[in-house]
Amino acid sequence: MGMKSPVLVLFFLPSRFLHGMIEKSLNRRRKGRPSCSFVCGKQNSKGIICAMKFETIRDLQIPKIGFGTWSIGGRESPDPASDESSLAVLRSALELGYTHFDTAEFYAAGHTEELLGQAVRESGMSRENLFITSKVSPEHLNYEEVLTCCENSLRRLRMEYLDLYLIHWPMRGMNLVDSFRALNQLVRDSKVRYLGVSNFDLGLLKTAAELSETPLLTDQVPYSLAERTYQQNGVLEYCQQNDILLTAYSPIKRRKISGSPILKVMARIKHASVQQVALAWLVQQPRVITIPKSSHPGHQEDNLDAAGIELSSADMTLLENE
User: Fold this and answer.
1) For the segment 189-233, what is each residue's pLDDT rounded down to a tens digit?
2) How many independent structural domains does the chain possess?
3) Alpha-carbon span 273 to 317, nearest angstrom
4) With DSSP H G I counted as helix, E B as strand and the rest as coil, what are the percentages for the chain, rounded to 5?
5) Would residue 107 show up in a list of annotated catalytic residues for this protein?
6) What residues does 68 pair with on adjacent strands?
């Protein structure tokens, strides 16, 4: 019988030896390398400058890490009793330096948009310094309803335009030609700056790109170390080859990533959490941005700081194969 593969031998070792071997290997690769890059940085509450990174696409610079708003103000229906705590979450995100906020008419039946608009107004931030995304629901995809839904989102936000407007989910039997006729009109009317889709597979994404009169900006999909469907089905590669952003939602489902030994060791070496390393793995990929959501100011700050963690090509490969 021939010699066993080193990889196979590794997994027969006790976990304490496995952790030690991984850590020594990573330390050798990392020696003398800084763990943060400083791009448009600001000092966080720990006194450390770890900067936001941006993805530059055509004439736009968009933060690699934005802020998701699902369940703020309610889930499928409004929860007015939570308004104060919901506003506190949004205020904290704005104060920490988040500028890309992702919402939808579906979130709390539009109430999330209302709260986001209120938090932005109270912050005193210039609208031009923010990037606001909203979405039209799949049951509203005919021409007139798309136009009406966009106007309703703008009214709830109390804003004059959306930076990005997405079809939230594809729907069986939808008429994308009719939907994009309305979406293109919204761009022409300066109600929307950029168009995109969400949860579209490769075939639907290609169709949407053909129907959009302006270059499609993004396909927003679930993507993380624990969820690779849109990598495996060709969407990620298509986006990277065609100047389309892949916006990763649900990027750090804690229960799914907390058990990885490689992730734990890498996080210890980087003086970071496993969630931060998981986010860094995403944002270091070309044409990938992400929109984690957290209600805790400390976690919000940690998510934002994850953009400053530098992963080597060897780190990326280890995580890719995890």
Assistant:
1) 999 999 999 999 999 999 999 999 999 999 999 999 999 999 999
2) 1
3) 19
4) 50, 15, 35
5) yes
6) 102
Please pick, among 98, 107, 230, 249, the residue that the annotation labels catalytic: 107
Q: What is the CATH number for 82?
A: 3.20.20.100
Cα dist from 125 to 100, 120, 121, 190, 192, whole Å? 13, 7, 7, 21, 20
Tell me, yes or no, whether 229 lies in a domain.
yes
Give the residue among 230, 227, 161 at the shortest CA–CA distance from 197: 230
Instruction: Please tell me the distance from the alpha carbon of residue 165 to that of residue 152, in angstroms, as a whole number.
Output: 13
d(CA 72, CA 268): 32
pLDDT digits (tens, 9 = 90+) for 253-274: 766 677 788 999 999 999 999 9
What digits encode the pLDDT tens for the residues 151-171?
999 999 999 999 999 999 999
In terms of Cα–Cα distance, which of 306, 308, 304 is closest to 92? 304
Residue 183 lies in a domain: yes
Q: What is the pLDDT of residues 69-86, one digit of tens each?
A: 999 999 999 999 999 999
Structural domain boundaries enclosing 215: 60-250+287-296
Instruction: Name the CA radius of gyration of the chain, rounded.
Output: 21
Q: Please report whether residue 258 resides in a domain.
A: no
Lowest mean pLDDT among 2-6, 116-120, 199-203, 270-274: 2-6
pLDDT of residue 51: 61
Sign of CA dihedral 222, 227, 231, 233: negative
